[in-house]
Specification:
Elements: E1 3-6, E2 9-12, E3 16-17, H1 29-41, E4 46-48, H2 62-72, E5 81-86, E6 88-92, E7 95-98, H3 102-116, E8 123-126, H4 135-147, E9 154-157, H5 161-170, E10 175-181, H6 190-199, E11 202-206, H7 218-221, H8 223-232, H9 236-247, H10 260-267, H11 276-284
Length: 285
């Protein structure tokens, strides 16, 4: 497994997005644990989660608890950087709400610490801007958590270039990651990716394969990915992740998975080398 860096931590170049194992349509726990263990067996050392990754209103933090159980039962669990988030909520009925108040973020972090069973969270990210709360106040809470040693590294998610610059300033140059949506079908985060490349901040594409319901359709929806996959004898999904990795050394995709075979295929993308011509075709398509 090739590696990249988030802050001062070396991680696998492909991470595991654990959200599909806790929301609607999730597998049973045994398969989820097998999926996380399969990721670790391939050399994955970055797992992405959030307190909002759950299905029912009364199970906040389901995904964090699942990850803690999986890591505790694997001999490489201590090598994993767990990236979690706060500021998003699922109050029930499939709805999503926002809460970027500093007091909420600090309480959410404390709850995540307990569920993960750690003294400090490896990477804590402000999940999504709350229009009712000053962005500076929300990020200020993340800065306080960093200063207090509750988190080891700080990141933001779903941010635009101005928010990236503002967050890095508030954090005193200690912003280590930006987690934005980016995929063949959703390329509007290119400016954020370029800014992260310029600043040396890790860029973590979420839903890099198009999301839970569409990942399997990547090849049929984007012909260049299918063609190049056929030429290499691999899946279009593996081509997609290799394409992202080639964009910048700061890119660390976090494809979601709920089956061992899925994360094994994704992890293999670090060994796929695409030609300059292939990359240009994928950029255009």
């Amino acid at each position: 497994m090739h590696t990249r860096r988030i802050g001062d931590v070396e991680v696998s170049a492909i991470g595991l997005g654990a959200m599909p194992m806790s929301i609607e349509g999730r597998p049973d726990e045994a398969r989820s644990l097998a999926t996380i263990h399969a990721a670790l067996d391939t050399g994955v050392t970055l797992v992405d989660t959030a307190d909002a990754y759950h299905r029912d209103a009364d199970e906040v933090g389901h995904n964090e608890t699942l990850i803690a159980k999986a890591l505790a039962s694997h001999d490489r669990g201590r090598e994993v950087l767990v990236a979690t988030k706060g500021g998003h909520q699922r109050p029930g009925g499939g709805s999503w709400t926002l809460d970027g108040r500093p007091e909420h973020l600090k309480a959410a972090c404390e709850a995540s610490l307990r569920r993960l069973g750690v003294e400090a969270i490896g990477l804590y990210q402000f999940h999504r801007p709350d229009p009712r709360v000053s962005y500076a106040e929300s990020v200020g809470a993340i800065r306080d958590l960093l200063d207090e040693g509750k988190i080891r590294m700080a990141g933001i998610s779903n941010a635009d270039p101005d928010q990236i610059r503002q967050a890095n300033e508030i954090l005193g140059g200690r912003l280590v990651s930006v987690q934005n949506q980016f995929s063949p079908a959703f390329r509007s985060s290119e400016p954020e990716l370029r800014l992260c490349d310029e600043l040396g901040i890790a860029f973590l594409p979420w839903s890099p394969l198009g999301g839970i319901s569409r990942a399997g359709e990547l090849g049929s929806a984007h012909a260049p990915f299918a063609r190049i996959a056929g030429a290499h004898g691999v899946s279009p999904q593996r081509v997609c992740l290799a394409w992202m990795l080639a964009k910048s050394p700061v890119v660390v995709p976090i494809p979601g998975a709920s089956r061992p075979e899925t994360i094994r295929d994704s992890a293999a993308a670090t060994d796929l080398v695409l030609t300059t011509e292939e990359l240009a075709e994928l950029d255009a398509g």
